[in-house]
Amino acid sequence: ILISPSPPPSPHLHFHPKALPPAQPALHCPPLQANEEEQQLGEMKAHEPLVVRLGNALRRASAPPVELMKAWDMNGDGMLSRIEFRQQVRRLNIGADYHETDKLFDTLDVDASGEIDIRELKGAVGRLQKAAAEAEAEANVEAAKVSLQKKSARE
């Protein structure tokens, strides 16, 4: 299973996506061209935490963890090594560096064995997807607030 890049069970682990600062209304800026808007959106998405970017990629793929393991486990041993995890995250083209990827790997490797087994992957996929959904919901709330502020300013 290939997860195409986007233009972006441990009960004690919980991901907290970093909140973006509130958008500031631009007063005297000319409207952006479509390609400039896409570029700015891409730059904003690059600042999302890796848990959110990876969670979004997994949400789009909607592959069951067992299928994900088969696709990502390059040597077929039923485990994801750190190197396999790095390679697969890099293939997603979600802007993750080695340090960031390794830090996430260490968080997902609940038993600290140096590999992610299917049990850990199942829990990780759920938590990553949940983090992405929560970040999306927060962004929608912030966008609604900005829209209301603009509407109030016009009245």
Structural commentary:
The chain has helices spanning 34-46, 50-61, 65-72, 82-91, 98-108, 118-154, and strands spanning 80-81, 115-116. By secondary structure, the protein is mainly alpha-helical. The protein has a two-stranded antiparallel sheet. Helix 4 (82-91) packs across helix 5. The longest helix has 37 residues, at 118-154. The N and C termini lie far apart (52 Å). Residues 4-30 have low confidence and may be disordered.
Low-pLDDT segments: 4-30
- Computed structural class: mainly alpha
Largest sheet: 2 strands, antiparallel
- The amount of beta strand, in percent, is under 5%
Q: How confident overall, as mean pLDDT? A: 77
Task: Supply Rg.
Answer: 18 Å
Q: Cα distance, first to last residue?
A: 52 Å
Total number of helices: 6
Helix fraction bin? 55-70%
| Number of E strands | 2
Helix-strand topology string: HHHEHHEH
Name the overall outline. Answer: elongated
**Strand order within the widest beta sheet:** 1-2
What order do the helices and strands come in, and which of them pair?
Elements: H1 34-46, H2 50-61, H3 65-72, E1 80-81, H4 82-91, H5 98-108, E2 115-116, H6 118-154
Antiparallel strand pairs: 1-2
Helix pairs in contact: 2-6, 4-5
Write a concise synopsis of the structure shown:
The protein is built from 6 helices and 2 strands, in the order αααβααβα. It has helices spanning about 35-45, 50-60, 65-70, 80-90, 100-110, 120-155, and strands at about 80, 115.
List keywords for this structure.
single chain; 155 residues; mainly alpha; two-stranded antiparallel sheet; 6 helices; 2 strands
